Structure prediction request, 183 residues.
Amino acid sequence: MPMIAISGRPGSGSSTTARLLAKKLKLRHFSVGGHIKKQQHKSTEAEAIVSYWKTNGRDASYNKEMDDLAMKEARKGNVVIDGKLAIHFLKNTARFKVWLDCPLKVRAIRYSQRDKIKPEEAAKIIKDTEAAHIKYWREMYSINPFDQEFEADVVIDTSKKDSDEVVYEIIQKMKEFNISLKQ
Prediction:
């Protein structure tokens, strides 16, 4: 029962990569951030992120509920889960853990294209989101979410790769690690 955890900095491509990897491997996909963003009922992802940090993002019980939901999905197996804390919370459950990284400038361009906002506005949203991640998750969990890079089985810089190339690289790394790709 494959269980793959994917995380990364905002805009690094973790949700897109997880969705495509799940499809390629014929696994289920669960996105913690996607679940949270849907609950915000905003027209763009950037607006949903800002709304989350103004409301539920600071609520420890809400965050625990989301962590528990990710664990519940992980226990079912045959899933690729993406979330900003996926590697940390699923480190003992995930068969393979992937951290995606990318420079801020590239991530801001991705946000701006996706949400039709200026790159400067996107960069500010990303910086504010990362600061909130560090502040509140350090208070809630005593961790820096960006240290998950050191808990991952593989770290991939997505800045010069399209989503299909990132998925291909993950599959190749899984083969190198002798991770079964069969359900």
The chain has a mean pLDDT of 89.
